[in-house]
Design a protein that fits this description.
Blueprint: H1 12-21, H2 33-39, H3 46-62, E1 65-67, E2 76-80, E3 83-85, H4 88-98, H5 100-120, H6 124-130, H7 132-138, H8 155-159, E4 167-175, H9 181-194, E5 198-204, E6 207-214, H10 216-228, E7 242-246, E8 254-258, E9 279-281, H11 283-295, E10 304-308, H12 312-315, E11 318-320, H13 334-340, E12 349-353, H14 358-369, E13 375-379, H15 382-389, E14 395-397, E15 399-400, E16 407-408, E17 428-430, E18 439-441, H16 444-448, H17 456-467, H18 479-482, H19 514-518
Parallel strand pairs: 5-8, 9-13, 10-12, 12-13
Antiparallel strand pairs: 1-2, 2-3, 4-6, 4-7, 5-6, 11-14, 15-16, 17-18
Length: 526
């Protein structure tokens, strides 16, 4: 991994970082984050701060690079905030004026990385001799060194087949400690742009989580690069990449970023680590456990809970028979849900599952840490891998995905209903009212009657906006969302969902906010 170097790394850097770490980097009240940050530093530390800020700025600009058209003399352009920049001056001006707070946050991360490097720099030479991987990265730290050779392919070959019928979407994650997530971020950005991939990739010191779409050639090359990279080749295999029909069209753009967690549970990885998860069960093993669980359905007291770790709008259109599906809107509510309903899990064997397995890694670790369960198991590869092996198994309905497809279909079962008329329906659409952005289930017959919003209240707002465009401001959170309990309380006994479609809640049932899907706080829940 490339190391951070500075022309003047003195002993005062530790003090600089220690003082800096107490700053609230999420405090939006800072009018000028960069000035406030710099004010925390003594004169003798300004050089370190200046170095960190320049590196943070360069990394931010690097993540916005896109290949320039072949007819241009330049080899790259930049795209940010839906704007195209053809020269470095304009993207630099845009970054400095519109993204100062993001660069400030990244500067903090660089300073912390500098502190880590400083603590180990004295023993670097001997460490390199002991660690060939570190040596390899030190002398091959340029991002370009880790991009595949495309000389035998034309851009047309990489771009063709990006449509939903011919292209492919990859879903994957890898938990492993990363010393320099910002370098990985720059590399992933360059790699995806190199292969004309779109999607979302989250990177943290605990690993990487991504979902990307493009042509089948591009996704194949992406997997090959990931599996050959020394950072991941000993931690991943080809089977860790879940595939489905799709392409670059499934995502509006490419978004790559560095975060504290690769899936946002809301608890620091230092407190609940991925290194202490539940016991992994293969799809075949999980299938047998569910079969055994369902055979005990008539018993009054079952010692097993089949727990869906996803959000309510995901389990609403597809789930395992007999599962307990928490009525929560975000995975960051999951720990509070466990705390509030802890007695439900006492002395129980818990079978957990999610879309691709990533939420179960730390979700199971959190539940295990409570010390109340008899055993905690999780489905390896998630529903995605289970449906590949058992398309007509115990999972009924569609599999929700966090891109513009909304769902994948493996069987013909429909387990949800139109929110207006109650007819079987499981195809999500966006609420028609601007700024609401909820996902709704409304069948074609109801759509033809004009029922295209998430609830009656929102429908009325939409009509008022249509007649008076100037009245365009109202709460983004709809009333039907506000009525939903943030953390539901379950009964003392396990509540089983019926295997046939159940009546849906009133029209007030809401869907997820689109901004939550397309931003990194929940971009690619594997």
């Amino acid at each position: 991994m490339p190391s951070f170097t500075s022309p003047d790394q003195g002993d005062d850097l530790d003090a600089c970082v220690l003082r800096f770490s107490d700053l609230d980097l999420k405090d939006t009240r800072l009018i000028n984050p960069s000035s406030s940050l710099k004010a925390e530093l003594d004169v003798c530390m300004k050089k370190k701060y200046s170095f960190a800020k320049k590196k943070a700025f360069a990394l931010f600009v690097k993540t916005k690079e896109i290949p320039a058209p072949s007819f241009e003399c330049k080899d790259k352009w930049w795209k940010c905030c839906q704007q195209l920049f053809r020269d470095q001056i304009s993207i630099h001006r845009h970054a400095a004026t519109q993204h100062a707070d993001e660069i400030c946050h990244q500067t903090a991360s660089v300073l912390k990385q500098l502190a880590v490097t400083l603590n180990t720099s004295k023993s670097l030479k001997s460490e390199v001799n002991r660690n060939p991987l570190k040596e390899y990265f030190i002398y091959n730290h340029e991002v370009s060194a880790w991009l595949p050779d495309l000389s035998c392919f034309s851009p047309d070959e990489l771009i063709s087949g990006q449509g939903s019928d011919e292209g492919e979407v990859l879903l994957y994650y890898c938990y492993r400690d990363l010393e320099d997530p910002h370098w990985v971020c720059a590399w992933q950005t360059a790699l995806c742009q190199h292969l004309y991939l779109t999607g979302k990739v989250r990177i943290a010191t605990e690993g990487i989580n991504g979902t990307v779409g493009g042509s089948k050639l591009a996704t194949r090359l992406y997997v090959e690069v990931m599996l050959s990279c020394p950072l991941f080749k000993d931690y991943m295999c080809k089977d860790d990449f879940k595939t489905s029909k799709g392409g670059a069209c499934c995502f509006p753009e490419l978004r790559v970023g560095v975060f504290e967690e690769i899936v946002p549970m809301g608890i620091s990885p230092n407190k609940i680590s991925y290194k202490k998860p539940g016991i992994h069960l293969s799809p075949g093993e999980f299938h047998k456990e569910v079969e055994k669980f369902l055979s005990q359905a008539n018993e009054e007291q079952s010692d097993t809970i089949l727990l869906d770790c996803r959000n309510f709008y995901e389990s609403k259109i597809g789930r395992f028979q007999g599962c307990l599906a928490p009525d929560i809107r975000k995975f960051s509510y999951f720990p509070s849900y466990i705390d509030k309903n802890l007695e439900l899990f006492r002395e129980k064997k818990v079978l957990m599952y999610c879309t691709g397995g990533i939420r179960c890694e730390r979700g199971s670790a959190y539940l295990k840490a409570k010390g109340v369960c008899k055993e905690v198991f999780q489905l390896k590869g998630g529903i995605h891998k289970y449906l590949e092996e058992f398309p007509n198994g115990f999972y009924k309905g569609k599999l929700f995905v966090f891109d513009e497809r909304y769902a994948l279909s493996y069987n013909s079962d429909i387990v949800s209903e139109c929110s207006y008329c109650g007819a079987p329906w499981d195809q999500y659409k966006l609420c028609s009212t601007p700024q609401c952005r909820q996902l709704i289930l409304t069948c074609p017959a109801c759509q033809r009657q004009g029922f295209t919003a998430c609830c009656v209240t929102c429908q009325d707002k939409g009509r008022r906006l249509a007649s008076s465009p100037s009245q365009s401001s109202f709460k983004e959170e709809c009333e039907c969302t506000a009525r939903r309990p943030r953390i539901p309380s379950e009964l003392t006994q396990q509540v089983r969902l019926p295997t046939s479609p159940e009546p849906q809640p009133d029209v007030g049932e809401d869907g997820p906010c689109l901004c939550e899907q397309q931003q990194f706080p929940r971009p690619s829940e594997s």
